[in-house]
Amino acid sequence: MTRDLFIKEMLSTAVDMTPVGRIADELSPEEFTEVAEQLFADVLKISKADVSGIKGYGEFNEENRLEKETLQQFLESEFSPEQEGYWKNWTQMFDTTMLSKGFFDKYYAKMMQYAPFCEGKRFLVNNNTFFCNMIVKEDGGVGFPDWSRAGVCDFLLDFAIMDLNKPYLLIPEKLYAYLKKNGMEVENFRERFLCMAYYKGIATLMWHASIDDEESCISIMKSISELEERILAIK
What we know:
mainly alpha; 9 helices
């Protein structure tokens, strides 16, 4: 079964996988503010998918299965020094790229510190919610054409990716206000958001370091290092 068909069978028809419209990356901060609540609502629709018949965590493999039983196992595997393919011997980047071992170790430890708050939180995630991968339609709704990185994890991962992409839009702050306004309580929101954000943050940092993208590395490290103060200040 193809990935799109597999995902389509889980999603409600309210989630648009073939949207036509404007790339969300083109939105100005003012335009984003106008569509933010609808965007949040549409991302949350993804998490409503029924994953009870699917075991595990992480990204779906080529057989649309999940390879790790627990979230902790998935997070550990993502940064294991024993990998093949592109990430074989990736720890050598500590000596050859901008990837700092001290910075990585600090935020890996923080990710694992908060991981227990996400354990058991199993939702379908798009896992690729960078603004260039989302389409704003004429009716204001948002669609998601790219499901290549989809999997099962805490649904806050999709919002953490958005914040990593454009931290100046204050995604978690606005999301928390939106949830509160609509009577949707998310248990341990701060800890869970930080775990997902540190996971995706250091993973994305590794990628940009591997291609010697110095500008992106500096931006990502700044975003990661400032995040905890932002999140803990949310009221």
